[in-house]
Amino acid sequence: MTDTPPRTRIQQRNRETILGAALEVFSQHGFRGATLDQIAQAAGLSKPNLLYYFPSKEAMHEALLAGLMDTWLAPLRALDPGGEPLDEILGYVHRKLLLSRDFPRESRLFANEILQGAERIRPTLEGELKTLVDQTAAVISGWAREGRIAPVDPYHLIFSIWALTQHYADFDVQVRAVLGPGKDDPFDGADRYLATLFSRLLTP
């Protein structure tokens, strides 16, 4: 069996351009609403050139989702069971909010996939994600039993963090419209508010 030859710099650049264009189109239109023609136009490449690098729309979508899940799980993996409980949970909230700020298209891609039934990432959700959340929930429950944080349902705490942080990416247009002119960056205020909210919830 022969090894796949390494990609040239031009090939690597074209792949990255295509994936960036696909991310933009998928995050706006979802998988079902996106077309190869839209992605080719966004990438500035011909459709045959697009298909030279990725054989189908599904292949582009799967490549994006594979990279996204690593990014998405990293903030939860960084939670230290040996750390100070409130600091660790607030650190997780902060990291998730930064993810929404820095990767809004990826957040919308993930949300669209969930809304459409998550058929392409269901094994990851039911496997790697569930295992990680179960482990984190056990840590949070242990902290609560020891009286180091207030009693709380660990799963619903994690769901709350997801909802309250990802909102700023998935509903960015609504957030900015409601805040109005002169408040272009909602994330500083959100960071302070969420730190206060979860501190009050979790302080014994």
Description:
- InterPro entries: Homeodomain-like_sf, HTH-type_TetR-like_transc_reg, HTH_TetR, Tet_transcr_reg_TetR-rel_C_sf, Tscrpt_reg_YcdC_C.
- Residues 12-72 form the HTH tetR-type domain.
- This is TetR family transcriptional regulator.
- Residues 35-54 bind DNA.
- With 204 residues, this protein is mostly helical.
- The chain folds into two domains: 1-55, Arc Repressor Mutant, subunit A (Orthogonal Bundle); 63-202, Tetracycline Repressor, domain 2 (Orthogonal Bundle).
- 76% of the residues lie in helices and 0% in strands.
- Helix 1 crosses helix 4.
- The mean pLDDT is 91.
Keyword list:
2 domains, 76% helix, Arc Repressor Mutant, subunit A, Homeodomain-like_sf, Tetracycline Repressor, domain 2, TetR family transcriptional regulator, transcription cis-regulatory region binding, DNA-binding, single chain, mainly alpha
Note the topology:
Elements: H1 9-33, H2 36-43, H3 47-53, H4 57-77, H5 85-102, H6 104-115, H7 122-145, H8 154-170, H9 172-179, H10 187-202
Helix pairs in contact: 1-2, 1-4, 1-6, 4-5, 4-7, 5-8, 5-10, 6-8
Pfam family, one: TetR_C_3
DNA-binding region: 35-54
Protein name: TetR family transcriptional regulator
Structural class: mainly alpha
Question: How big is the Rg?
Answer: 20 Å
- Alpha plus pi helix count: 10
Q: What would CATH call the homologous superfamily of the largest domain?
A: Tetracycline Repressor, domain 2
Query: Domains counted in the coordinates: how many?
Result: 2
Report on the biggest sheet: none
Low-confidence stretches: none
- Report strand %: under 5%
H/E element order: HHHHHHHHHH
Percent helix, as a range, is: over 70%
Shape: globular
Do you know the CATH architecture of the largest domain?
A: Orthogonal Bundle
Q: State the CATH class of the largest domain.
A: Mainly Alpha
Span between N and C termini?
61 Å
The number of strands is 0
The average pLDDT value, as a whole number, equals 91
Kindly report the CATH topology of the largest domain: Tetracycline Repressor, domain 2
